[in-house]
TrEMBL record:
Associates with stalled 50S ribosomal subunits. Binds to RqcH, 23S rRNA and the P-site tRNA. Does not require RqcH for association with 50S subunits. It comes from Gehongia tenuis. One of its GO terms (biological process) is rescue of stalled ribosome. SMART domains: S4. This is RQC P-site tRNA stabilizing factor. Residues 1-65 form the RNA-binding S4 domain. InterPro entries: RqcP, S4_RNA-bd, S4_RNA-bd_sf. HAMAP family: RqcP. GO terms for molecular function: ribosomal large subunit binding; rRNA binding; tRNA binding. The keyword tRNA-binding applies. CDD domains: S4 (cd00165). Belongs to the RqcP family.
Amino acid sequence: MRLDKFLKVSRIIKRRTVANEACDAGKVSLNGRSAKASTAVKPGDILEITLGERTTRYEILQVIENAGKAQAADLYRVLS
C-alpha cells in the first residue's frame, strides 16, 4: 500500500492530499529515510512524522486497504 493511502486509512492524517503535502515537504520518514507519498509500506516499518514542533514515531502493525474507524487504531502502534 502507498504511504499516503496508509496515512489516510489509519487516520494518522485525515486527508490523502495533506499526507501527500507532508511527504513532499520532507516531514515523513520511513525506516529512517525521507519518504515519498508513493513509497510502499509493510508491517514492521517504522514511520516518523513531524508536524509543527512535534515528532511522532509509529510502528506499522498491519496494512488493510479499507479500515473502518474502529479498526484504524489497530493498524499502528505509537512508539513516541
